[in-house]
């Protein structure tokens, strides 16, 4: 596989102002006829026009007005020698959607034809300049059988439709906004339509339509509500109004990722769109709301202003994730959202940044761009935008957004252009800040404190520890406060100036000190409030101080954080005891701090459900000197058991204290109550008492919503009981034929740290509801197993060879999904001895495969390096 470099970027030699497509769907094949209006975009001598095209059957090429035209066809290109600077090409080719199992380009999901073109799928539909800086106005005519494909959809507005001979029909769509071809979409199939509308701030009434398989009409309301909320929010907070006359969403079962923001015609993985209380959990409802929003927000940040090239991906993804996070925070609990976002960042992005496939949010090279739709580009990208927001404030940030659209609407631009807009609007200089775009790795910020009793000063010294000697210091914001021993926020005075009780200081150099004046007693520092920068904080904080912050910090994120740090210290001590064969004893200080939190009056249930949780296994193993998930998991269980035992009465009393009314309502308060109640249940089931097993069994049997029912199943899964087996069997029988719900059954079992061994996975892949060609099922079975650290990393290497074999199988038909699974080997560098040899063998068997895709090759070869 060859490597592509950002530094080699050159602007396109030709542009395509207008693209007219005719797509004829027949049983055996699909014929694509394109009419491309092309003009020269370079100085001097005319160059050949080199169009991309992959897996296409070429039929014909004509240049309008010319007798003939010279061309050359290769495996991946069609080169044309034009005679003029402006010309129209007419090209005909055929594609085979039925056998397209890579799910890129035009393919079939069930009986529906649909497309996925980002980043480079359009070249699998027709010959084109498949690059995001070529923006064109598209007109699309679709023809197909009337009975099999009653719906014919594409981007923009429907301008014509009608009947044709032989039971066929056609539809013509026009999208007035120039767009790169990665935003092109087409859908044909027999789909039910659920409709609503939204009145924009300027008074235009926009029909909102969701297309789903027949039978799923009752799972569309939530997506429609979410869409309306998104449209309203983008008007209210960003002043952005929808631009087309129609907004369509199609849900399909076979999709490589979550959803796609095609102009006016989003295509969604059905798991990310369809929900009702019986078939989706709170987490699903929340995720759907945020993904619907994310794709909608792309209409401005991504579609109106797009990326110059794929190295700029974070330009649209980081920004759009930031926007969807803010949307969720404005609509739900900001504190809970922030905690969950940071949790997800650390468990995925921090791990990626510390592993073999680490890359900056703006990579400088790639072999396969599909491998770079990563937590780094997305979530760390959003943190980088958030830091700008933190430093310049909401008002300036909004001015910066206005500037961005003033300068770049309708263009394909680079990340510097975004930062430039923010600089102009705020009057700030972000030259140094841009290092966040080009350096990889999570910076460690070491903090030393010094209280000077005579001078009444408290000094904080921040030292940046960078990943690499060639890296330079970052510019970043530290939001902070200081607490007195009474738990009160102290006034922050630096150089005689008061900054109130909370402020943001900025770091620029490798080492920097801040002196706070008028401090009479040694305070407790609360640093990086709200996780104001994506860093690892290295500061000596005593258990007493952490317990104190867990009770008193006014910043809810740091309150949560203090608890997690305390729990991690305890898990570390327990692990040490286990390793040296001592009886592990849970520290009373820790139990008391958490028990106090559970009973605290100044925290709501949603917060408690998060803060009273044991840190994730991933976050613990990331900090281990020697990677040992087995010991860490055992220590986690010991701590969880002790927390349950110490609070048994409270947990069982409060389990049903805040029962939400029978009717399921999706809102932050009810979600918080449900998660609190289910947290109580999960802890109680650790106590090995039959009364709690019955409680869970009851909840499983009687819950009308899937949130509570599935939580009961998960709680039972921790036990070795008949009730557990019965619930599992019942769940399968109930949802076997439901493409979405049944996936939870696979994932729940594959994630179980105790029982999900290789034999179990091999028996689950044999059940009729499993299908390796469906990416959702792959993720829920093999993906969940590979993320199950204790089982995947079994000493005998059985987990490694199972996953390696699946990667090899997937590579032959869906490289993207195969590459995604290949990232499971990211701990290679942390392994030692025989364990490392076993993983090495597994990785080498993958590299030996004939026809290994560049996708898998890139991940695996970089892992072995
Ligand atoms: N832009 C798409 C992702 C495309 C992934 C291609 N492998 C979804 C999103 O970020 O909204
Ligand atoms: Zn996106």
TrEMBL record:
Its cofactor is Zn(2+). Residues 441-539 form the Peptidase M1 alanyl aminopeptidase Ig-like fold domain. GO terms for molecular function: alanyl aminopeptidase activity. Residues 223-436 form the Peptidase M1 membrane alanine aminopeptidase domain. Its EC number is 3.4.11.2. Residues 544-865 form the Peptidase M1 alanyl aminopeptidase C-terminal domain. Signal peptide: none annotated. It catalyses: Release of an N-terminal amino acid, Xaa-|-Yaa- from a peptide, amide or arylamide. Xaa is preferably Ala, but may be most amino acids including Pro (slow action). When a terminal hydrophobic residue is followed by a prolyl residue, the two may be released as an intact Xaa-Pro dipeptide. This is Aminopeptidase N. The gene is pepN.
């Amino acid at each position: 596989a060859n490597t592509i470099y950002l530094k080699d970027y050159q602007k396109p030699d030709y542009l395509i102002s207008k693209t007219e497509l005719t797509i004829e769907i027949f049983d055996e094949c699909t014929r694509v006829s394109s009419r491309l209006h092309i003009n020269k975009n370079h100085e001097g001598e005319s160059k050949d026009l080199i169009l991309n095209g992959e897996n296409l059957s070429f039929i014909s090429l004509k240049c309008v007005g010319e007798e003939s035209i010279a061309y050359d066809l290769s495996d991946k290109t069609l080169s044309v020698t034009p005679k003029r600077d402006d010309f129209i090409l007419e090209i005909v080719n055929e594609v085979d959607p039925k056998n397209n199992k890579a799910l890129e380009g035009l393919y079939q999901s069930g009986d529906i034809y649909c497309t996925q073109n980002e980043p480079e799928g359009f070249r699998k539909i027709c010959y084109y300049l498949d690059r995001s800086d070529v923006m064109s106005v598209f007109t699309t005519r679709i023809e197909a059988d009337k009975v099999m494909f009653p719906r014919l959809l594409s981007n923009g507005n429907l301008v014509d439709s009608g009947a044709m001979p032989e039971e066929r029909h056609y539809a013509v769509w026009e999208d007035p906004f120039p767009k790169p071809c990665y935003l092109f979409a087409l859908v044909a199939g027999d789909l039910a339509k659920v409709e609503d509308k939204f009145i924009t701030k300027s008074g235009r009434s926009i029909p909102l339509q969701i297309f789903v398989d027949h039978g799923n009409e009752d799972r569309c309301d939530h997506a429609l509500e979410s869409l309306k909320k998104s449209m309203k929010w983008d008007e209210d907070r960003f002043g952005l109004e929808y631009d087309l006359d129609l907004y369509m969403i199609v849900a399909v079962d076979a999709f490589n990722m979550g959803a796609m923001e095609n102009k006016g015609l989003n295509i969604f993985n059905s798991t990310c769109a369809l929900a009702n209380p019986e078939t989706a959990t709170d987490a699903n409802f929340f995720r759907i709301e945020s993904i619907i929003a994310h794709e909608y927000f792309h209409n401005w940040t991504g579609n109106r202003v797009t990326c110059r090239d794929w190295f700029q991906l974070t330009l649209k993804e980081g920004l759009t994730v930031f926007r969807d996070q803010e949307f969720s925070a404005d609509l739900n609990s900001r504190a809970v959202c922030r905690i969950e976002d940071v949790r997800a960042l650390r468990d995925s992005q921090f791990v990626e940044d510390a592993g073999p496939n680490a890359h900056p949010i703006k990579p400088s090279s790639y072999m396969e761009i599909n491998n770079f739709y990563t937590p780094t580009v997305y979530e760390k990208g959003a943190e980088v935008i958030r830091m700008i927001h933190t430093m310049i404030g909401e008002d300036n940030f909004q001015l910066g957004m206005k500037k961005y659209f003033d300068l770049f609407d309708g263009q394909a631009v680079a990340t510097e252009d975004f930062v430039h807009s923010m600089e102009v609007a705020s009057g700030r200089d972000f030259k140094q800040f841009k290092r966040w775009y080009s350096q990889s790795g999570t910076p460690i910020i070491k903090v030393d404190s010094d209280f000077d009793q005579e001078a009444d000063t408290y000094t904080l010294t921040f030292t940046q520890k960078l990943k690499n000697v060639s890296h330079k210091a970052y510019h970043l914001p530290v939001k902070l406060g200081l607490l007195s021993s009474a738990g009160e926020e102290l006034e922050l005075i630096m150089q005689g100036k008061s900054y109130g009780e909370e402020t943001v200081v900025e770091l620029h150099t490798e080492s920097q000190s801040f002196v706070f004046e008028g401090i009479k007693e040694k305070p407790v520092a609360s640093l990086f409030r709200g996780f104001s920068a994506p860093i690892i904080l290295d500061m000596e904080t005593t258990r007493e101080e952490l317990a104190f912050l867990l009770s008193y910090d006014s910043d809810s994120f740091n309150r949560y954080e203090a608890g997690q740090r305390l729990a991690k210290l305890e898990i570390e001590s327990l692990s040490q005891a286990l390793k040296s064969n001592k009886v592990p004893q849970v520290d009373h200080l820790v139990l008391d701090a958490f028990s106090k939190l559970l009973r605290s009056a100044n925290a709501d249930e949603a917060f408690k459900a998060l803060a009273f949780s044991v840190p994730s296994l991933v976050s613990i193993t990331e900090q281990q000197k020697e990677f040992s998930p087995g010991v860490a998991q055992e220590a986690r269980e010991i701590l969880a058991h002790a927390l349950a035992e110490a609070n048994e009465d409270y947990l069982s009393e409060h389990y049903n204290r805040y029962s939400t009314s029978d009717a399921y309502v999706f809102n932050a308060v009810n979600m918080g109550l449900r998660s609190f109640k289910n947290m109580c249940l999960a802890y109680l089931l650790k106590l090995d008492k039959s009364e709690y097993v019955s409680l869970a069994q009851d909840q499983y049997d009687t819950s009308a919503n899937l949130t509570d029912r599935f939580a009961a199943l998960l709680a039972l899964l921790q036990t070795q009981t008949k009730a557990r087996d019965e619930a599992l069997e019942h769940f399968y029988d109930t949802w076997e034929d439901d493409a979405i719900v049944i996936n939870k059954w696979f994932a729940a079992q594959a994630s179980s740290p105790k029982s999900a061994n290789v034999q179990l996975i091999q028996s689950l892949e044999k059940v009729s509801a499993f299908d390796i060609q469906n990416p959702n099922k792959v993720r829920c079975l093999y993906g969940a197993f590979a993320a199950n650290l204790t089982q995947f990393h079994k000493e005998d290497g059985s987990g490694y060879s199972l996953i390696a074999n699946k990667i090899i199988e997937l590579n032959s038909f869906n490289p993207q999904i195969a590459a995604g699974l290949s990232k499971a080997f990211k701990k290679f560098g942390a392994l030692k001895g025989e364990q490392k040899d076993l993983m090495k063998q597994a990785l080498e068997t993958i590299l030996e495969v004939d026809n290994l895709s560049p996708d898998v090759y890139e991940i695996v070869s970089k892992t072995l390096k």
